[in-house]
Structure formats: C-alpha cells, structure tokens
Amino acid sequence: MISSTDPTWAAFLSQTIADFGCTTGTLHRLDPADRHLKLVAHQGIPEALMPIIQSIPVGKGIAGVAAERKEPVEMCNLQTDTSGVAKPGAKQTQVQGTLAVPVLDGDRLCGTLGIGKLVPYDFTAEEKDRLIRAAREIAPALLPA
C-alpha cells in the first residue's frame, strides 16, 4: 500500500502515463478542509503552471470539474476547446488530448488523476474505464490522514 507521503506516487503516475501512451499527468488529493485538490505528483507540467496547479478548487478547471461531477472529463483537443472547462493557463501544457478522472473510494472523493497527450485524441470507453479502475485502486491510500 502506498502512503500519502511515499515517493512512489511519482512512480505510479509515471507508470500510468506510460501505460496510456501519454506525456503528462497529475495526481491530486482532496483537502476536505478547504475543498481544494492538492498536488501530490506531476509529470510534464511546465514550471510556470506549478503555482496554479498546486491547489485547485473543486469545480474549477479540468481536474476540479472531474472532482465536482465525480465522473471523467475529457477533451479531444485542449488547445482548441471552447467549453470553458479548461482554464486559459492549461493551454501552456501544449497538451491536446486530455482525460481527468475522480479518485473515488466508493462514493467518497479522494482526489483526481489526469493524463494528457501532445496530439488530439479521443480516449476510448475502455481507456476511460482503465483509468477509473487505476484511480479506484489507489483511493484508499490517497485518503487524507
């Protein structure tokens, strides 16, 4: 079992990114005190975005909306998306195809897991299910202390 301070969160994220043929990813833990998603691990995120993604309010941005809805949020091309879900700074990642899922322990929100590709991409239903399963597997370890 991975603990909340274990550096293997980065290894888990790196392996997940590789398993999906992606180049970027984030893992956030829900802080119930302020209802913000706090960054636990990241890969491929530009340094300029780090202050923005350290703490994301539930309901804001791709990860925040996935957390609020407790369902996957996908964009085929983040660079051309006009839905208003992604925040303007997200385009700095150069990511196009993106998928964020809630990390759920039953119905309890623990955080979010997001991955992205540098090309336009529609994730398949099977890929979404795989990412949801991966998120559910780590949920107990991601719960706040």
UniProtKB/TrEMBL annotation:
Domain of life: Bacteria
Alphabetical list of SUPFAM superfamilies matching this protein: GAF domain-like
Location of the GAF domain: 15-142
Entry protein name: GAF domain-containing protein
